[in-house]
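YM 10:42: fructose-bisphosphatase sequence, as discussed on the call
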Amino acid sequence: MQSELAIAFSQVTEAAALAGYQWLGRGDKNAADDAAVKAMRAQLNRTPIAGKIVIGEGEIDDALCCI
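YM 10:58: structure's back
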């Protein structure tokens, strides 16, 4: 079970990184954040786990959205 979760969370990280990467060099940090968060949320929704996200970085850097 733990290795399955590790793989699942690696896929979440990968999805967010790939979505944010598409905005690299465009000078729009908020769009990159938004794309990464949406991809992360979508991948988490496909992950067969039950839980609640209790932290996000939005307050730290005034991101438009948090998980």
